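Chain A, query sequence.
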Amino acid sequence: IIIAAEESPIDQVNIDYLLQTFCFVPCSQQPLYTGKEWIPGTGCEKYHNCVLGKPTSWAQCGNGLRFDPFNKNCEEAGAVSCPTLAPQTCPPTFTNQIVASSRSPSSRPSAEPTDYPTLSPTLPPQSVARDYIRSKRDEIERSVLVSYTNDGEAFPSTRYTFDGLMNGLDVIAVEGFGADFKFNLYEGVPNEWKKGLISLAAFLANSMVESIQYDSCDENNWQGLDGKYAISNSCGQEGYSYEDDECSFDFKSSCPVVSSMEVTAVNSPIGDSFPPPFQCKPGTSNAGYWDSSTGEIIQTFYTNVAGRKDIEGCCWWGRGALQTKGPCSVGKINYYLGKKGAAIGRDTLYPSIDFCQFPEALCASADDKNLRWNAGLFEWAERIQRYNADDWNYDSELDKFIQGGMTSNAFITAVSRIVSRKCHRQGCSKVEVRMLDERTRHFFMIMNDIFELPMLLATPNPTPNPTPDPTRRPSLKPTMNPTIEIQKTNPNERPSMANIISTDEANNGLLVPNPNPTTFSDGLIRLEDNAARRKD
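Chain A, predicted structure.
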């Protein structure tokens, strides 16, 4: 049972004494450690608050409580096994003292404000945010990069890895992609980098719902009714028509919708217990539905929620970490990252890939497995962080969220609407954001429990968080609209590579499956080296 610590006056802790007696270096258990750490020689009554590998304050558990060095919380004394260290002789290496804190420590980070930490002078200001994120690798892998089988069994995501995330941040947030904007981590600006952590927490919270929980790059056919899943869901789910998502007048590079295009998703769930991967192809006047009771496709008149019964031109389903979808969003990737931009002289990351002619390259390319991360980070930078509509501006609302104590749901709710509905107000779309409660809970879990931002940002007078306590694990079975059935990825299935084509063939519109693609050990193919079968 976790119990909040009580306010209790305490004496100062002499760090020299700890070093000389126990050879103890505070906050050094891992590089740039941020969190709570027990203090030896105190009977587990006292603990340090560490920020970026330095002690900033110390506190004491209340009467009848002890600090558990393993769970890192104040708990009932009888439930804590306090380690015993033998006194040793060590030269002192740290001569400062930590000023006693009169604040009440708590098992929840959001209830324990401290002063801003002094960052290590050896850390270059351009990398402090990424170094801090790297210090949280274990927590992110344990609580964020987690996928689930259809039965709710958790397993580490294979398609969304920590290394892939960091590589994506290095490119999209730091090195750039030839544009006048990046994913804003606020690197190099004192204390502002903590705002970047909040942005990353919101990005990851939405990615957990959109893609990571399924361990899939391609959108899943998850919307069913009475066990029937419309094959035409590839055209759009929840009543949306993805191909109608056109760019505003000031952006001229939206992808054209071609009814003769033929593409099949490469790493959606495959197997008898899952709907087949999304597909688009001509000549499908009645695509039918997948019957979950038989595992078969029934070709008959059957529409999706939007009334679509065919799959011609329906090649714009979601892909990547944020499930980037629609001709406009894919067109922007092609312009800023792909062949369209390279053709007009831009220095793009993927100059040989025409994402408009072959949108499945976002999931299929073995040349850069980080594309699924890069696409999501790019969309966040281009569409979310630059969002400015009516009286709502992303940067301004982020500042308001921080100034208000980081307890309100308003910021993550509006941001989640922008991600999935492209508008921020309640009621701005015909349906509310799918799994909004989960996105909100994930956001506060990442922000409070992993990044420990309340401690970094030091809210002087915190107010109780009105949201449910953030969990340290994603919920095993997200609560959904009862009329919608969710299908999740089977981690034991390998991606189907029967519909991958070369970049050149894709760029020329020859979107026909290759019956014998060249595959690699990871199940992906190299777009540049693969030859496609031409149309008859």
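The chain has 14 helices and 14 strands. Residues 1-11, 91-125, 459-536 have pLDDT under 50 and may be disordered.
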